[in-house]
Design goal:
single chain, alpha+beta, Gyrase A, domain 2, 2 domains, 7-stranded mixed β-sheet
Length: 247
């Protein structure tokens, strides 16, 4: 796959790996993201401010008073030439989700009808899906989770909602998302999690998920949802409680 570099104003450029959503493309994005992080930790790539991964590209921000694209690009090309895949931040998380409350699962019956399975099968297929965070964007903390079970693939709603409640868990195409805030949206709502996707009380770690994370959902009752929601109102969740220990 060819790689190209595109200017993004006078303080950033994009490293483009392709034009489609595909695991092999996103894995190259995350490998470069990790390799650059390792270089910066070693004191190299002076002037590079941060890198922001998306589904198919990596945005490189730099300080124009310290460096230029012309100075940074050769170093990044060297990393690409070696396909150096430094280990990026990667966690496995299990997030609680309540599917059994009608006000949470507004589109569950419609998804079941359109996919030809029962409502319970829709829930079980979503629970069985292993999702990978390809990017966080559109609004602070909104994770694009790729890996939805194929029987649930549907286009977005023909008529988007003006207001989707915060923490709604929804699906469209091969993806699932969790809305960080109340906002308009056209995805199919299957449930709701008590875990906020963006909580400024956590400071620099305000975003719950990060590109490279792996996510599964765990079914909870309305009573458990209410208890966790009340807990979250008192103090922000320590996200470590949802991270699975690696063997």
């Amino acid at each position: 796959m060819s790689t190209r570099f595109l200017d993004c104003g006078d303080t950033a450029f994009s490293v483009e790996f392709g034009s489609t959503i595909a695991p092999e493309i996103n894995s190259r994005v995350m490998a470069l993201h990790g390799a650059i992080a390792s270089e910066r930790a070693a004191g190299r790539l002076e002037g590079l401010v941060e890198t922001v991964p998306s589904m198919r590209a990596l945005l490189v921000h730099y300080d124009p008073l310290t460096t230029t694209r012309a100075a940074l690009q050769p170093a990044i090309e060297t990393l690409l030439a070696g396909e150096r895949a430094a280990e990026a931040r990667s966690r496995r998380l299990t997030l609680p989700c309540c599917y059994d409350e009608p006000e949470f699962a507004l589109d569950l019956a419609d998804v079941a009808q359109r996919t030809g399975v029962s409502e319970e099968e829709v829930i079980q297929l979503h629970l069985a899906s292993e999702f990978h965070v390809y990017m966080v964007g559109f609004m602070p903390g909104l994770p694009y989770l790729v890996g939805l079970a194929k029987p649930l693939h549907l286009p977005r709603r023909a008529s988007p909602r003006v207001r989707v409640p915060a923490r709604s868990v929804a699906i469209a195409t091969e993806m699932s998302v969790v809305y960080p805030f109340e906002s308009p949206g056209g995805w199919h709502l299957l449930g709701r999690t008590p875990v906020s996707m963006f909580d400024t009380r956590r400071g620099a770690e305000a975003s719950t998920l990060a590109p490279g994370d792996t996510v599964r959902f765990r079914r909870i009752s309305r009573a458990e949802y209410d208890a966790l929601e009340a807990e979250a109102e008192r103090a922000p969740f320590d996200i470590a409680r949802f991270v699975e220990a690696r063997p």
